[in-house]
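[scheduler] slot 2 assigned
[scheduler] job type: sequence-to-structure, two independent chains
[scheduler] chain ordering preserved from manifest
[runner] begin chain α
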Amino acid sequence: MNGKVRLGEFLQTRRSQLQPEDLGIPGYGERRRVPGLRREELASLAGVSVSYYTRLEQGQSLNASPQVLDAIARALRLEEAERLHLHDLARSSATGTGRGRRAAPERVTEATGQLLEALAHVPAIVTGRRSDVLAWNRLGHALFAGHLDPGAPDRPADRPNMARLVFLDAHTRDLYADWPAKARAVVGNLRLVAGRHPDDTALHALVGELSSKSTDFASMWADHRVTACAVATYEMRHPLVGPLTVTQQTLSQGLGPDQGQNIVVATTEADSTARTALALLDQVTPQHDPVRRGIRAGSR
């Protein structure tokens, strides 16, 4: 799918999700043939002509200015991550998508490995931009994927992928009490990454695989929601230590060899039952150390 189509689908979907009455637009009791705002209503709110907005939605207008895009974002009530995603899509639409290419294999640096070791008593994993697990510390493996081989991230061909786990793995699905919330966050993040990297063939293959194997994913993907997974609280139902509420924080690696990678850590409130459950998990988890092997393999 080219950039013009992606931009048009995003605008059409988000426009259909806005109700006129929520924006103070009188409906006069009329029945609408399609849900959401009409193009002319959205164009009026954004301060652009109907013909211009229509061409933009249809992929016939290129090089929309940042000011126009921001005005459309305000009219659509987009959040900051969604506004940036709109700019990414418009940029891709204007420049055209080049030939698909495979990015170089993602590797974890020695510095990131040291950070995982320093977080020995906090569950932590390193994910690549497509949500592949590049490394995890002992507790990260035990909390998120204790049913998998702890050495799997060391082997690029066998690396777990968090999006696949959330949608296709029964253990991970049962792990989250509010699975739909976790699933929507995963899809929203993939949407964000896809906008930034429109030529990533591996990412497109992942989306295609999940769309064909999971009707839940296909439905959520079609919704065009965008989510920057920075901080989120989840109730987990761990098979070894029972229920615990954790705050998952995603620390993005912005520059250098780690660019595009994220460190995901799970923390608990002090003096909580969740903190006690996590301490118990620490005690019952075998003392293997997958981090060191993964870092040596990745730094060659």
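[runner] end chain α
[runner] begin chain β
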Amino acid sequence: MQSDNSVVFERKDAVGIISLNRPGTYNGVNTELLNQLRTTLEYCHQDSSIRAVILRGEGPGFCGGADLSNFSDNPQPEMVRDYLIEHYPPLLKLMFTMPKPIIGAIHGSAAGVGAALALACDLRIMTEDANIRFAFINIGLGPDGGASWLLARLVGYARAFEIAVEGKKIDAKTCMQLGLSNRIASSGNLFSDALHWATELAQRPTLAVAITKEALHQSLHQDIYQNIEMEAINQMKAFNSKDFKEGVSAFLQKRKPNFTGS
């Protein structure tokens, strides 16, 4: 994709790198960015040679939230409602059903709906001075774009309510403590650390990673008996994969497996 797009895509071997590319607006989310992000995620979903994905932001931060200039000076509430319902469910569904891990690489701030995009990733790595901020409350709004659902499931109701109604910056260290982030990047090395992590994940058995992600997502919505049945059905697929045969052979031969994603 061209650098004048709102979303830029590149790849490093088996890793797809998606960059939000509106640095002049702190990667403010507008219709163009959402549409291009969906298209890029769909591409990563369908390309079997991409085995892990990084989502990052260009410029001073990850994403400052919605670009309010995307709406008219006097937007009607119904128009905002319809816009949110039209754009965010399909975007989050793409991220949740992506059969590959998505790492959010966060510098600066992930605020408002930018926080939702960050939390929708499977994993997050932050710079030491980065933060996540539920800024909706500071302009008289509640969370949107799936932000409340994501936050409550990561930290629990009481902590999520506190974060959402206070609207304060949650620094990287606190994000680690709360489970909002998985890692803190070494100084100045956010992208290289994220790429190293994604490359390691891309070397894992791709189908096994995919069914693991599906099982964990579905466990939030179904009881344990339904989950066991789904795990069993998916395990049949894994048993037929070349990566399973390679994993068993490597184990018996006491060597490192060479998973190919097939």
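[runner] end chain β
[qc] chain β: Residues 30 and 69 are 8 Å apart (CA to CA).
[scheduler] slot 2 released
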